[in-house]
Design brief:
2 domains, TIM Barrel, single chain
Length: 324
């Protein structure tokens, strides 16, 4: 399967998805100020971004609302306080984790909600449960995606089986997710071609969500898009769990579509992202995240190491080897 488009061409199928609040919320417990979220919403509109993911629709039975910011739960009234009726071209997305949401009680029919897309996140063994959720959201009138996490640790045979299962359901977009930031452009490209082969066969759309453990989130994103992947996740200044994600400013600067603009994004970085860093909110490339990426491990140990402000990297390396 060959590459699609060139460095100079515009692909109208590409959609940029801002995940700053949802993935970035994992860095600060979703405690963004109302002003921050409203200004990011306006910035995304002015920058031509296609979707803005506001956060999770997490179960309020499983998670104590008092312990998190509002974007862990994305109540309809909180969304409307930011977007009103959202009479813009920007679409609103939320994420629902399999096993961590009350989807049959917490979602309104689409005609009563400002949410446009529900992104269902699951591990490979949870695909049957994800399909049940997807069909329910489809019946309510929502666009849907399925984000299969931690794909770098899944046997190829299971990946193909999972893609076949999803392709026979109502899902609109199937996401290739580099949860551990362990992919390189070469194998990210191979995955992209596998996913696109299924997509072309069953008329599905493929998306890509990158993590930056090895400083490759942007490189992997543009590599996968070159093979036809069209829904691209990014966050402002790369804000996201651990090493963060593909940086929005890099992606918009790369895409040739004139509807995308970096200028307004730069002002938001100056006025809101840099102060967030100064307040001590931490994310981005660091040695511990690099190591978990190279070892294809979940970054939880690196997150703990970084939070404790440790710098004994050689000991951390040995701890990863000992548990190999």
């Amino acid at each position: 399967m060959g590459r699609r488009g060139t460095l100079l061409s515009v692909r109208d199928d590409i959609k940029v998805v801002d995940v700053t609040i949802r993935d970035g919320g994992l860095c600060n417990n979703f405690e963004f100020s109302d002003e921050f979220v409203k200004e990011l919403y306006k910035t995304n509109i002015n920058s031509g971004v296609d979707y803005m993911e506001f956060g999770y629709k997490a179960s309020r039975k499983m998670f104590n609302e008092a312990e998190f910011g509002k974007w862990k739960f994305c109540k309809e009234e909180d969304l409307r306080a930011v977007v009103g009726e959202n009479k813009t071209d920007l679409k609103i997305a939320v994420m629902a984790d399999v096993g961590r949401c009350d989807y049959k009680t917490d979602f309104l029919p689409k005609e009563e909600s400002v949410i446009d897309m529900v992104r269902v996140a699951c591990y490979i063994h949870q695909i049957p449960a994800a399909i049940e959720m997807i069909e329910y959201f489809h019946s309510l009138g929502y666009e849907t995606s399925c984000n299969i996490m931690a794909i770098s640790q899944v046997p190829n045979e299971q990946i193909l089986q999972g893609l076949e299962m999803l392709s026979h359901c109502s899902v609109d977009v199937i996401y290739l997710v580099d949860s551990f930031g362990s992919l390189y452009p070469e194998n990210a490209g191979v995955f992209a071609q596998q996913y696109m082969e299924i997509a072309d066969k069953y008329h599905k759309i493929i998306g890509f969500h990158a993590h930056n453990n090895q400083n490759l989130a942007f490189a992997n994103t543009i590599e996968t898009l070159s093979y036809g992947i069209s829904y691209l996740d990014a966050s402002v200044l790369g804000m996201g769990r651990g090493a963060g994600n593909c940086s929005m400013e890099l992606l918009l600067g790369f895409l040739r579509n004139p509807k995308y603009s970096v200028y307004n994004l730069l002002g938001f970085i100056e006025n809101y992202m840099l102060p967030l860093k100064e307040q001590g909110v931490s994310w981005g490339y660091d040695i511990p995240y690099m190591l978990t990426g190279q070892f294809n491990r979940h970054p939880r140990s690196a997150i703990e190491f970084t939070a404790d402000k440790k710098t004994n990297y050689s000991d951390f390396y040995k701890s990863l080897i000992e548990h190999d």
